[in-house]
Design goal:
Chain lengths: ~375, ~400
Amino acid sequence: MGYRTESNRLAAARGLDRREFVRAVCGSALATTVSSMLPQRACARASDRRKVVVVTFGGGARDQETFAPEGQENIPRLLHELIPQAAFFSQVVNQGILGHYVATASLATGVYERFNNFADVSPENPTVFEYFRKGKRRPPADAWVVAPSNGFNRIGQSSHGQFSGQGASVVLPKRLLARPDGTAAFGGLEHLLNDNYESPIQAPVALAEEMHPEQIASLLKLSVADFAAHASTLSSPDELSLFVVRRLMQELAPSLLWVTLHDIDVAHSGAFSLYLEGIRRSDTICAELWRTIQSDPEYKDKTNLLILPDFGRDSDTDAGGNGFQHHRTGDALSRTTWMMALGPDIRQNTIVDRRIESIDLTPSVAALLGCDAPMAHGKLIRELGL
Amino acid sequence: MNHAQGHVPVSAEQLRLLEDLPVPLAAVMMHQVSRADRLFPVERRELDGTLKSLMAPRPKSTEQAVEMFATLRLSPELQRLDWRSDPAGFVERMTAELWSSGQIETFRNAAKLLAPSASAVGQGTQEPSSRFVVIVLDRRLRAASESPMLFRRLRPQGTFFPHTEDNRGMETLERWMAARASADAEPYAHWKIAGDRWSESSNAQVVSLSYDGLSVERRKLLAFFNATRNSAASGGPEGLRQALLHLTPEQIGLISIDDPVLRTFAMDIFTEGSGTQLYATTFVQWTIREALRRAQPQSLLARFSSRSKATSIDMRMTKPELEPPPDDAGSLIDAEMGAYLSYVNLMRLPNPDRASFLVWHEGYGQALLVGRGMPQGSESTSAMTLERILALTA
């Protein structure tokens, strides 16, 4: 269909702009068919020791606020610290539903999930956590998700019957600070409870299957009160998530860690300045996370870090949207985003401008960890050394 | 039928026409027809045009749109619902289903095909004076840096006037608006939109809305959100959407607006706009967008003032009376983007080449004018007043 062709053209053009800009800034090599250029990753090499950290932005950022010349001031650390060490994929397309929970679930299953974004349901297809734990016979403590609380409580475990009980543990940091009704349990921490920007209210959540806050605090070797005391020094929910991630790495050193950042999604409130603040904060958090990985002996030199938004945001020119505020139009820009990958299995300072899909993430992460994701629809991203 | 907001009875002829259409299109058209008495004149003309174009013989693009709508597949559950009795609820559910079934792009493309037919039918209506949008940035909106580069996105489109200190600027703009309203008395042709209240009493021919002026209503709506989420039957975001569909302007106290069209418009701003209940800058930007899109006014004067600092929405809902302190620096960034998006929205209306757009920061004394005869990407070093600038494209 003509529209799809045009959409593909726009997506490709966006990827090309991004590539040219990154190359100008970082002088990266161009790898269009890099599978032949990269060192093949030996299957039995070190996958049993490998760790993977995935960071998704549950609230995409547009190029004009990030990789375009006028946006680069918002992502100094991604550009100057991470991209020179990374393989940068300039064209990652999401063909699914543009709601954050369902889209992130699709990234985690490798299948475009079709459930209602606001429903309190598990993904239908097995997640990468389940493939990993079942395939590698790993204990529950080896796969974790840190995510905002708007529905993400079920992302660690699919409803697929063959993988029952094989999912990831999910930490919703907000839950450690909130009363059951969502209000702050500790005075002065209300600003850390912001995270549900797509709707003023969120779905009622079944708490029965969730790990209790005290249980999580115990695993993290931290009392809820101490956690609250530390939280009082932070300025946003994503900073709280980074704190929890570091604690998890320190105490449990999981092999598969999935972090969903959400500060950027404050864009739904229509306040452009808050959206920019969210981008800058995410930039810092990604750099700090990589620094943490490189400074922790459990992770250093054996961890691949993958960073990608779940999708984009609407363009200024689509009459169906309202610019940066939402991701409702389904236009090419709202579907096209990017990914960067860093780590021992990934060729540094490389740009890949062939189109990949966001559902390619799951089979690729599984392969990096030495297991298969047989029900995923996505394809292996060969440029990750696979 | 959605009785909460009243509805326009559908004629037998209209119903026959709609029943011959594919259900997704019929439901959307039924929704529009049922609220015809709350549409602006331009919208009513477009609706009439679309209905006319759907009658045989149809224009080619309309026929293509109908065929595209006919390819959409709805679930048996949705098909069992009656789109005639509650078109708003039906459309809401259908939209969610089209997203989840991956058909939303087909729906959007079909709608786009239908839209030009409506405007084509509307051609020939007299276009009075040239459309003019003026945006004022309150002097309290200040950047963290000493000398910010204002209007960066807009500068390529027009002429920048860096010396526009004008202590009587607002008076000039009020007079300008009154003169335009006197010259063209069409209903809903002239609008004033603000974050804070307008100092002057409203001219009856000018629609006037402000964030501060609707504070009581906003708080009632936030309290409604809170009550909805805490109710036993809360259905989460979807439940809230359904509840909002059946909310009446009276339920949030919008009785102060006599005109039923404006009353509904004001409620739509709060119930369909995201963040309009929380931030003055968002309210102004979204209201400009919707006024331009729906009413297509000839004159629009808007004023961005400071929004409150970012605060947990939980807190805003549980304490609706709370107004956090202002964030002047953040508001300037919001207002600049708001001005740019307003320009983009203005350019979407008919005859964009005849339209003018002025943005002025009253504190920094800087302005930018886009319009006929104004060089693009240029700068004038002359000292200017707003009166002189307004005359440049008149």
